[in-house]
Amino acid sequence: MEWYQMVVLAVVQGITEFLPISSSAHLILVPHFLGWPDQGLGFDLAMHLGTLVAVIVYFRRDVALLWLAWVQSMSRGRRDVDVTMAWGLLLATIPALVFGLVIGMLGEDMLRVPGIIATTSIVFGVLLGVADARSRRDRVATDLGWREYLGIGLLQAIAIIPGASRSGMTIMGGRAAGLSRQAAARVSFFMAIPITAAAISFEVLKLLDAGAPTAWGQLGIAAVLACVSALVAIHYFLRMLQSIGMMPFVIYRVLLGLFLFAVFGWSG
Q: Which pLDDT does position 122 carry in this prediction?
């Protein structure tokens, strides 16, 4: 992979991972349109590691409190809203793990086509806009219960389909559950930690099993670029979210889907 390809893809991953526009779709479409080769498993691993570090660093205080609550729930029998949230985030991860395993066995390449990306981008983009517009409550993350975490987790599982957007689906679920925009975004970011850690573990096992030579220098740079761009994206997304809402992202997704249909048709 050329150095400029690495830079572009790492920055694209970092920016789109936490915005409701689907990072997986953009990592498929950018090489497709530019005629670049597939970036490979090692590169995906590095970029996921970068975005994982970014969200942990940005929310380090909250992550530390949730981790402590989870540990003390088992060691001391602690029961409070932080414990409920910590276990709720883990519960929300289970559907995505199951769905990801099923898709992996069936073959995920069948989903990595422009027609599916266009459809999911438009359909779930519009649903995100509807959920955001109709939500009239301003609940906080600690108001959520087990059923609501499981419901948002099911939406996160659907987001394995390219174009659906993990961030978009979980924010949509949070808004449908009555969370404020800020709270829905924070829950979405927190949910990214366990599922991304699981994805990294899976990618490490596949990489070790492949036994292919690895350009560690390139992967390290990709991880840093993805981390830095993700930190910037998280910061400005949270700052602008209350004023701009979801509509700019909905419009972008619909236009992207229509563009893909215009270029590739319904069978692409």
A: 97
